[in-house]
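Sequence, please.
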């Protein structure tokens, strides 16, 4: 829970919510400087950013999970779902948005390739870029520019291949660190 966040339930204030069988929760948090542009007039006046959640997680919560009926639990569940929505946006950026054909089999192969690319992107971030503050949370377009479209030459000499990376490329060290970490992983069995 954010130290300056507050959560309250508003279900009793709206009879439609009770009739529909949903719970209404409101969350307020001190806005960051990044969020200052998109605040409403009320949020600017009060100094809080508000978010309203409508959920079908009932007042009894989830079966078998103690405390799941509390508003803080429901708030945490819904905030965690934002990560799922972020991955959907990433998959779309990796090609899932652009189906190339009108035939099912071609689009099925395309969707599989786009999902594999998104998985490689996610695992690369997790295993190779976890401590790089700039690239660990970068958008796919940024990673394409910084790492995947690397200005380099593959040189073959004396039965060895060498990757010659431009010394002026700003993300050279990030690429090399990521490559070394991924290369050190054990082979799948």
């Amino acid at each position: 829970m954010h130290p300056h966040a507050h959560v309250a339930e508003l279900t009793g204030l709206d009879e439609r919510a009770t009739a529909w069988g949903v719970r209404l929760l409101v969350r307020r948090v001190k806005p960051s400087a990044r969020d200052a542009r998109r605040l409403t007039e009320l949020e600017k006046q009060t100094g809080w950013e508000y978010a309203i959640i409508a959920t079908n997680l009932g007042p009894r919560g989830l079966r078998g999970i103690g405390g799941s009926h509390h508003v803080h639990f429901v708030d945490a569940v819904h905030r965690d779902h934002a990560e799922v929505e972020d991955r959907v946006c990433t998959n779309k950026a990796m090609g899932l948005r652009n189906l190339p054909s009108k035939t099912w089999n071609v689009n099925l192969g395309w969707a599989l390739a786009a999902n594999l690319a998104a998985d490689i992107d996610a695992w690369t971030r997790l295993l190779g870029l976890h401590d790089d503050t700039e690239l660990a949370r970068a958008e796919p377009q940024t990673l394409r520019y910084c790492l995947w479209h690397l200005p380099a030459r593959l040189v073959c000499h004396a039965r060895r291949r060498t990757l010659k990376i431009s010394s002026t490329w700003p993300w050279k060290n990030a690429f090399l660190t990521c490559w070394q970490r991924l290369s050190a992983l054990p082979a799948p069995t």
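Helices lie at 15-20, 41-46, 71-96, 104-128, 140-148, 172-183.
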